[in-house]
Design a protein that fits this description.
seven-stranded mixed sheet; 9 strands; two-stranded antiparallel ribbon; binds S-adenosylmethionine
Length: 251
Amino acid sequence: MIKSSKKTIDFGFRLVSKEDKTNLVGTVFHSVALKYDLMNDLMSFGIHRLWKRFTIESSGVRYNQRVLDLAGGTGDLTEKFSRLVGEKGEVILADINDSMLHKGREKLRDLGVVGNVNYVQANAEELPFPDNYFDCIAIAFGLRNITDKNKALCAMYRVLKPGGRLVVVEFSKPINKLLNKAYDVYSFYMLPVMGQVIVNDANSYRYLVESIRMHPDQETLKLMMENAGLEHVSYINITGGIVALHKGFKF
Ligand SMILES: C[S@@+](CC[C@H](N)C(=O)[O-])C[C@H]1O[C@@H](n2cnc3c(N)ncnc32)[C@H](O)[C@@H]1O
């Protein structure tokens, strides 16, 4: 088991300095940005769309609200939130990576999503928003890429309004041993090959698979959210725990 220390952190199965991790993750998403959506559909057989729909339904977002789609990448959640909050609401798509943000902005403009969406390049660890600002923060498949997850969770807590909620949807630990084995075979052997063929970059997809294995399991993430101050934290396993949706509130 790879153990991070005060100075080092996991980047997939390697230990690197914290600064290097942030840069290496940046390189991954600069490299995959153009074909990110296509790869998501191919790798998950389209199932990521259902995971995201479930996330939106679980968020409880309503008309007029202010929502942060954090590590929002190419904006799948933002598109749906934008329609839910309506013209008097606001959605901020924030991501650290300008290639992903650029791709997201282009895609949403083509889909006619304009008016109530703003784009912010920001590190989740140091959110450039006032305290008590958002009704809801959603982070989809972003948390495991963040260097200091605890710091980022505290930053999310700070910018949530009292009564607001944080929804984290992320790859997690399958609960069934057989499913886990099949999932391992598929992801360790197939995904880097698909990455090589489609994006000409096997390494980024090797990182993706390894980062999923290094991410805290369901109970650990629940504890991390509680330690950041969130209350009534609960989670639901989706697709047998391949993905888990955690939800917590600020009171
Ligand atoms: C796997 S993508 C998920 C994108 C989108 N949320 C989705 O579900 O399709 C992960 C995103 O996290 C972003 N990211 C990584 N580290 C970040 C950080 N420290 N702060 C903000 N965004 C970050 C990446 O740039 C990338 O766009």
